[in-house]
Amino acid sequence: MAKIDYPLKQILEIKKKRVEDAEKVVSEKRQLLEKEQKVLEQKKADRDKAKQHRVDKLEQLRSELDHATTSPKVQQMKVYLKICDEKLKIEEKKVKDQQDRVDAAEKELEEAKNLLKIKRQEVDKLMMHREGWEKEKRKEIELGEEKESDELGNVIYGMHHRKNENL
Question: Which domain holds residue 72?
C-alpha cells in the first residue's frame, strides 16, 4: 500500500509548534508568579517586623508612663511612635503593591493557560481530521485497487475465454 501524505501536515506542524511555544509561556508565567509570591512573603515579613517594632515601642511608652517619666522623654517616645506608624504605613503599601503584582501575575498565568488549552484543542481537532482523512483515503485506495484487480481479472478471463474459443 502506498504511503498516504496528509495535505495539512505543515499546518499541523505549525500548530504543534504553537502549542510548544504556549507551554513555554505558561512555564515562564508560572516562574514569574512564584518569584512574585516569594517577594510578597518577604514584604509581609518586613511589614510584620515593623508592626512588631511599633507594638514593642508602644509597650515601652506605656511602661514609661506607668513609671512617671519626665515629659520630654514621653514626647520623644510619642514622636518615635509616629515615625514607627509612618514606617508601618509604608510597609503596608509595599505589601499591597506587591499583592497587586502577584494578582496580575496570576491573571497572566490563567490567560496563558487558557491560550494553551485553545491551541491544544486546535491540534486535537486537526489530529482527528487527519485520522478521518487517512481512513477515507485508505478506503479510496482499497476501492481503486479492488477495481483495478477486477478489471485485470476480467481482462485475463477474457483472454483465456477467447483463447479457449479459438482452439
Answer: 9-123
Residue 37 lies in a domain: yes
- 141 part of a folded domain: no
From first to last of the 167 residues of the chain, give the pLDDT tens digit: 557 788 888 998 999 999 999 999 999 999 999 999 999 999 999 999 999 999 998 888 888 777 766 788 778 888 888 999 999 999 999 999 999 999 999 999 999 999 999 999 999 999 999 999 999 999 998 998 888 888 888 888 888 877 777 76
The count of structural domains within the chain is 1
**Which pTM value belongs to this model?**
0.70
Tell me if 67 is assigned to some domain.
yes
Grid cell listed for 82: 509616629
For residue 100, the domain's CATH number is 1.10.287.1700
Burial of 23 (0-12, 13-18, 19+ CB in 10 A): middle
